[in-house]
Every structure is written in C-alpha cells, then in structure tokens.
Write a structure and sequence with these properties.
Length: 149
C-alpha cells in the first residue's frame, strides 16, 4: 500500500518510528515532512495527495492528533480519524472507510501507535449500509450553512 506520512514538530520522532514499522511490513512509505511547519499546512498537503489518488492512505502525527484530523477533514474526499484505541482504529476502517489516520505523539506510546497503524492499514471497509452513510458525508462537502433558506 502507498502511504503518505506527515508530522509537526511535536511528533516527528513517532512519525519516523511508524514509517520504519510500516516499511518493514512492505508498505511504500513517503514522508511529506512538516516538522518545520504548522500542522494545517502539512495536513493539507498530505490530504490533497491522498484525495488525488497519489497515495492509498495517509497517517498524520501531531501532539494530540486532533489538529491534523481537523485540518485534513477540510479536504474534499478525506475521512480522517483520530484514534487512540484499537477498537476505534478498526471501526474507522470497517464502518467509516477512513482514508487517513491521525495520531497523537503526546497521547500514545510507540507500541500502541504501531498497533493502531497496523489495524488501520489491514482492515477492509465493510460497505453495504455503511457505504450509504459514508456517501452522505460526501454529500455534505462544499455545503455552506449560510446558503440554507
Ligand atoms: C503543538 O504544540 C500542538 O498544538 C500540535 O502538535 C497538535 O497537538 C495540535 O493539534
């Protein structure tokens, strides 16, 4: 699988550990950088690359994962989940078809982060009724509340 990774200054060490881990499992891993940038800049670049199909999945790292997740989800076609437990990482794939994962280096230990990434990269989307719900999320993209009558 083609994976793009990016981090801010708070999470560079975890990013590199996870990149090595994913590469050792046979994934093609690309570092989009970001250590010297504000997290929205990096999240945007990585998310756009995933949305354009240059990568199959993206994994973003910051202090909590929250900022990266919030920024990545502004890009059309991106479903980025911030996870700190294995069940959420599993279900973000099975039910939500998440194409990006955001992790918090100040929240997670390295071994837990590896487990979350393994689940995120190895779990298939179940489709079916979940596809309808994911499609409903897609329909909201580009909506502006001020356009409501
Ligand atoms: C940086 O201090 C921190 O705000 C950032 O890494 C991230 O946690 C934001 O969501």
């Amino acid at each position: 699988m083609r994976i793009v990774c990016g981090s801010d200054h708070a999470a560079a060490a975890l990013k590199h550990e996870i990149m090595d881990h994913a590469a050792a499992r046979g994934h093609e891993v690309t570092d989009i950088g970001g250590e010297g940038s504000d997290y929205p800049v990096t999240a945007r670049a990585a998310a756009r690359a995933v949305a354009k199909g240059r990568f199959d999945r993206g994994v973003l790292f910051c202090g909590t994962g929250q900022g990266m997740m919030l920024a990545a989800n502004k890009v059309r076609g991106i479903r980025c989940a911030v996870c700190s437990d294995p069940y959420s990482a599993l279900m973000a794939r099975r039910h939500n078809d998440a194409n990006m994962l955001a992790l918090g280096a100040r929240v997670l230990g390295t071994e837990l982060a590896k487990m979350l990434v393994d689940l995120f990269l190895s779990t298939d989307f179940e489709g079916g009724r979940h596809q309808r719900r994911v499609s409903l999320i897609g329909e909201m993209e580009g909506e502006r509340a001020e356009d409501d009558v």
